[in-house]
Design a protein that fits this description.
This protein is mainly β and about 450 residues long. The protein has helices at about 5-15, 85-90, 100-110, 135-150, 195-205; strands at about 75-80, 120-125, 130-135, 155-165, 180-185, 190-195, 210-220, 225-245, 250-270, 275-295, 305-325, 330-340, 365-375. The chain has five helices and 13 strands. The relative contact order is 0.11.
């Protein structure tokens, strides 16, 4: 084969069968196929398998759960009907009374329980409250919801009295009767005291000079809601300078206001049995001791360039605490500490602030009393069968016969034990007597067991 014949054969081979040529192969997958990698995560439409720790759980959609919701192992949904309570507490000033339920649940469990790695839900609307958590937290949620929706009283009457005491020795005669609750972050003190002893303390204060009743208010509040009671005075002071603009006179003093007084945010919540309350107390007392006048240079086109402003010296005490199991009928007494001359004149004799003429040791005291004002008609309805008193056997019917108003005394022998009666036929009586009738004030039937509800602390979560 010569050279010309070889070129001819090469031309014919490439033109007639190009797909068979080695340099022009058209393979669908030129890269070698590799085996699929094994993964430790199984193929699933839900991510719940990743968090499966052996606990019982279903891959089916949870009951009452939103669509496309990823379930958490150990968590479940629970809905609570709060429509009656929300409608009872609605007003233009309080358009969302159901928020109080969420606030009280947060006070018990804390916020960290609801903001962890697992999904948790606590949402309150006008008709229902929805919660998604583990069984332990849901039990606490149910406890607090029932304290709102099945309370023994809907409305509570709260009486608050603010007293400015010039002498701290009011404790001398009643200190042993004060039941200490705790202290605040700035040395505030809290006690409970009987109503009679509280009246004695206030009476003793009124007999001496230097004790002033700043406020005495009675307010009705829905169970669990928050009320605000304050008594304050506005104080004007020169805070800074401002330009008058078109007037052309330059910077002029600017006046602002300070509030001096006592401010109380108070939220009472009845316990399940209705014999005590938990109270969220947020108390603040502010005192403006004096205004220090200071001169500063300012840009002015007319007149002197210096302007006098005021630097206020303010003393404030703040107490934010939840009082638990406060028995009804007891008075809550709060000592907010020393607030010198609160809501009183502090200028002294002839505005010279001489020692002895300016109040320096004024102690702020708060007296709080609570009593149910309107009973609830929902306290005995729709309770759980395990918690309903109707599950117990009914006592035997009582006699409707009235006892005589002036009964005649009996002989001594008539108080002896009567002979035993036969269960089949009652013993015959010779003469009927009004004392033989059943006493309507006694009941020999066994008393039902008292239902107790356990409380869990925040540390249990």
């Amino acid at each position: 084969m010569n050279r010309r014949m070889a070129l001819m054969l090469g031309f014919l081979t490439g033109g007639l069968a190009p797909s068979l040529s080695r340099g022009q192969d058209d393979l669908e997958d030129p890269l070698p196929k590799s085996k699929p990698k094994k993964t430790t995560r199984p193929v699933s439409n839900s991510d719940s398998d990743v968090f499966d720790d052996g606990a019982a759980g279903s891959r089916e959609p949870l009951q009452d759960s939103p669509p496309d919701f990823r379930p958490e192992v150990g968590h479940s949904w629970k809905n609570f009907d709060i429509a009656n309570y929300a409608s009872l507490g609605y007003s233009p000033e309080n358009p969302k009374p159901q928020n109080a339920i969420v606030e009280w649940i947060f006070r018990r469990t804390g916020s960290a329980v609801w903001h962890g790695e697992k999904i948790a839900v606590l949402s309150a609307g006008k008709a229902q409250l929805r919660a998604y958590h583990n069984a332990k937290v849901l039990k606490v949620v149910q406890e607090y919801v029932e304290r709102f929706t099945r309370a023994t009283a809907d409305v509570l009457s709260v009486r608050v009295r603010f007293v400015a005491a010039q002498d701290t020795r009011w404790r001398y005669s009643v200190y042993n009767r004060l039941k200490r609750i705790g202290t605040g972050p700035q040395g505030q003190q809290l006690w409970t005291i009987s109503a009679d002893d509280a009246n004695l303390v206030r009476t003793q204060m009124m007999l001496y000079q230097g004790f002033k009743l700043l406020a005495d208010k009675t307010v009705k509040v829905l169970n669990g809601q928050t009320l605000l009671i304050e008594t304050a005075d506005d104080l004007n002071f020169v805070s800074s300078t401002q330009s008058e603009g078109a007037s052309g006179v330059g910077a002029q003093p600017k006046t602002d206001q300070l509030k001096e007084g006592a401010f109380l945010r108070f939220s009472p919540l009845l316990t399940y049995d209705g014999d005590a309350v938990d109270a969220a107390v947020d108390f603040r007392a502010t005192t403006v001791k004096r205004l220090i006048r200071t001169k500063v240079l300012a840009k002015k086109d007319v007149g002197p360039t210096d302007v006098t402003i005021d630097v206020p010296e303010v003393v404030e005490t703040r107490l934010n605490r939840t009082v638990e199991n406060w028995t009804l009928g007891q008075t809550l007494l709060i000592s907010a500490g020393i607030t010198p001359g609160i809501l009183q004149s502090k200028t002294g004799f002839m505005n010279m602030r001489l020692p002895g003429t300016v109040p320096t040791d004024t102690e702020m005291l708060v007296f709080i009393d609570i009593e149910p004002d309107r009973k609830s008609n929902r306290s005995k309805s729709k309770r759980d069968p395990a918690m309903d008193d109707s599950t117990f056997d009914d006592p035997p019917p009582r006699s409707s016969t009235k006892r005589p108003s002036n009964p005649t005394p009996k002989d001594e022998g008539e108080f002896d034990d009567p002979p035993p009666r036969s269960s089949r036929q009652p013993a015959p009586r010779s003469e009927p007597s009004p004392f033989d009738e059943e006493d309507p004030f006694t009941n020999d039937s066994p008393a039902p067991e008292q239902v107790t509800r356990s409380r869990t602390s925040r540390d249990d979560f």
